[in-house]
């Protein structure tokens, strides 16, 4: 039987450690690629607003005249996953100071692996209009340059996903 010198014990330990380290690193890289729980990433852009601009320009309608806002949005949905994703449509809610202003819907879609999709969404109000106090708050905050809409999106599918943004108005 061969006698191992102290340097041989060191080399043997080093090679065992290096082998385990390589396996650990390879497993970590592999699990990052095959991670099925990667969520869909999304962003939103406010393209247009109607029904609020004359009101916010201090041309407020008289009492009894309601303002029905409508918002044109572009929703970009990115699938960074290596598998296709399917969602059963969804909904979009546009709010200001916690008060819902308009609702829209997103059609069902299938998104290929590592692909992106842009959807135009028209969010409209079917309600009676925007309360006067909220219109005054919007006009004041818009003059100060701090007015922001809260936009929430919920996608349907095997696992419901929710997204929210604050968009300058």
Topology:
Layout: H1 6-33, E1 41-50, H2 53-56, E2 70-78, E3 85-87, E4 90-96, E5 99-106, E6 109-111, E7 116-124, H3 132-144, E8 148-155, E9 161-168
Antiparallel strand pairs: 1-2, 2-7, 3-6, 4-5, 4-8, 8-9
Count of distinct strands: 9
Question: Tally the helices: what do you get?
Answer: 3
Assigned CATH class of the largest domain: Mainly Beta
Strand content: 35-45%
| H-E string | HEHEEEEEEHEE
Structural category is alpha+beta
CATH architecture field of the largest domain = Sandwich
**Shape type:** elongated
Structure notes:
With 169 residues, this protein is of the alpha+beta class. The chain has 2 domains: 1-34; 41-168, Immunoglobulin-like (Sandwich). Helix content is 27%, strand content 38%. It is built from 3 helices and 9 strands; from the N terminus they run αβαββββββαββ. The strands form 3 sheets. Strands 5-4-8-9 form a 4-stranded antiparallel beta sheet. A hairpin with a 2-residue loop joins strand 4 and strand 5. The model has no long low-confidence stretch (mean pLDDT 81).
Tags for this entry?
alpha+beta; Immunoglobulin-like; 2 domains; 3 helices; transmembrane helix; 169 residues; three-stranded antiparallel sheet; four-stranded antiparallel sheet; elongated
């Amino acid at each position: 039987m061969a006698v191992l010198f102290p340097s041989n014990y060191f080399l043997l330990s080093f090679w065992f450690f290096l082998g385990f380290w390589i396996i650990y690193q390879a497993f970590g890289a592999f699990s990052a690629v095959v991670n099925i729980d990667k969520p869909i990433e999304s962003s939103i852009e406010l393209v247009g607003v109607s029904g609020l601009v004359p009101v916010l320009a201090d041309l407020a309608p008289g009492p009894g005249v309601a303002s029905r806002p409508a918002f044109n949005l572009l929703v970009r949905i990115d699938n960074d996953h290596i598998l296709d994703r399917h969602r059963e449509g969804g909904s979009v809610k546009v709010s200001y100071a916690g008060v819902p202003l308009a609702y829209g819907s997103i059609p069902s879609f299938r998104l290929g692996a590592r692909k992106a999709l842009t959807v135009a969404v028209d969010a409209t109000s079917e309600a009676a209009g925007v309360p006067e106090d909220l219109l005054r708050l919007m006009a004041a905050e818009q003059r100060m340059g701090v007015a922001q809409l809260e936009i929430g999106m919920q996608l349907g599918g095997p696992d419901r996903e929710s997204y929210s943004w604050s968009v300058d108005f």
